[in-house]
Amino acid sequence: MSKLSELVAVRVMGWHEVVGTPGLWYDGARLVGELPEFDTSIADAWRVVEKMGGTFDCGSPYMFVIQQAPAWARFGGNLVDPSGANTIPEAICLAALRACGVSDGEIEEARKQ
User: Fold this and answer.
1) CA distance 106 to 64
2) pTM of the entire predicted model
3) Whose CB has fewer CB within 10 Å in the chain, the N or C terminal residue?
4) Structural domain count of the chain
């Protein structure tokens, strides 16, 4: 479990780790189970896009990963910059965290761990 995925779970998805049961997560209505790999799995990252009710566009994965073409996300009617990401799932996480008001300092701290 990465700290970045944990930060997304708490600050974007509104989840909480079950007290006394490390590794199990609760979304406020039901047990979610283990923490998804939001920052490495496109399927898990897309859950973030759906939660935010927005769109994410990187042109094509080739353009994003190989040529470092700009990507953008639209969350809450605002364009959000996912710059600094190395993968598309990571870009989705960065954009969602920034849209939720998480500081770049807090994001970078989570990415280091």
Assistant:
1) 24
2) 0.82
3) C
4) 1
Helices (H) and strands (E) in the chain, counts: 5, 6
Instruction: Let me know if 5 is exposed, middle or buried by CB neighbors in 10 A (0-12, 13-18, 19+).
Output: buried
Predicted confidence at residue 58, as pLDDT, reads: 55
Q: What is the largest CA-CA distance in the chain?
A: 45
CATH of the domain at 11: 3.30.2120.10
Residue 11: give the domain boundaries: 3-112
Structure tokens at 65: 């990963």
- Cβ-in-10-Å burial (0-12, 13-18, 19+) of 18 comes to middle
What pLDDT was estimated at residue 61? 47
